[in-house]
């Protein structure tokens, strides 16, 4: 029986450690591949698995259970007698195998924990900047990475984004910094890490069906601040994030750094009129500020919104904590471009803007869009994941002219609109293969000069689309097709 506490290095003895890897997406495969390289005995259990990945596992000699044989708690897992289970983060703790592991005191990790323990594969051991939040994680992570690279650092974004983190830490050149996006699922299972800097960008209802309650979701997000070494970055407009910092057990000397879209005080990053300023990482922060960038610089990125300003301020705070110069941050911001489906201008014709924010898969993300525009024709709905959108509807009803409701969970959306926005015209789009065509056609029949047609569904997409990208692409395609007919 291995002592897992002793396995805190790539160079420790991982040989013959019996590990079950639960799930075989890109993350699960990276876990199995890494542990096989270390000489561990690995059994992969995955109900769904890509045949190409299974072929590679066969080549490297990793046995696997798939399909019906992998459901629940297979007898082969019990016979294997694992000393550790590494699960894909989306698997709920109530899964039969994980419940069995808990009952038998078998530790459960995710790939992040394994990567932290293995981060010394090369002599170039990277610092970690860890970022979470209900909304804006990916954009902020990408901004920080760009700022670090502009400042001459070898940096990579990973975790809940892009390349699996275990593939990154196995890079033979190593990195100076890893910018690690962490989902609430990953944080739920995560043990001890010691980030150089950490941030919770915001907090709102999301994944309540997975975590069981808002309180459990919030407590999970707060774990990111634990053991932070240098800077705990929080959102001045979200009191919950500041409370998390206050309650965190950090490494002595770590500072609390606020970010804001308003005026920054001492130890904060924010905006003085149209200038993004640092009042946190300079000697005379009580009386002066460093200019980082302007709103004109940020407008180079895309549609200038308060959400974009907040992400830029948070990213700048994290980059400044790593001593990246203001001029390098400004250069990175001017050259930065948002991923698709994040408040993306699809078209503008006859004074009407068509905006794709399909990435707004929860009410908090949708709020960022609704707060950015007036005279909105709102395409809303999908899978609500147990979240009530009544507060969102009530808060932004004055900005919405018409709501075009799509998705499987239409009735709760319709009820929320009826109760909280009785003055908003509602158009319900029935389920069909032409749902997005019908929704865009309905929006087109309602809009006029000065309006914004906004796809910000406040819900997940898998009821009617493959994913949020498919939903956004369908919207953009229909907008272009139907605008050509005008």
Keywords for this structure?
single chain; 486 residues; alpha/beta; Rossmann fold; UDP-N-acetylmuramoyl-L-alanine:D-glutamate ligase; Protein-Tyrosine Phosphatase, Chain A; nine-stranded mixed beta sheet; six-stranded mixed beta sheet; 20 strands
Secondary structure layout plus pairing:
Elements: E1 18-24, H1 26-38, E2 41-49, H2 51-60, E3 64-66, H3 75-80, E4 84-87, H4 96-103, E5 108-109, H5 111-117, E6 127-132, H6 137-150, E7 155-159, H7 165-169, E8 177-181, H8 184-189, E9 197-200, H9 208-211, H10 214-222, E10 231-235, H11 239-247, E11 255-259, E12 268-272, E13 275-278, E14 290-294, H12 295-299, H13 306-321, H14 326-335, E15 344-349, E16 352-356, H15 363-370, E17 376-380, H16 390-396, E18 400-405, H17 410-420, E19 425-428, H18 435-444, E20 452-455, H19 468-484
Parallel strand pairs: 1-2, 1-4, 2-3, 4-5, 6-8, 6-9, 7-8, 9-10, 10-11, 11-12, 16-20, 17-18, 17-20, 18-19
Antiparallel strand pairs: 12-13, 13-14, 15-16
Helix pairs in contact: 6-13, 6-14, 16-17, 18-19
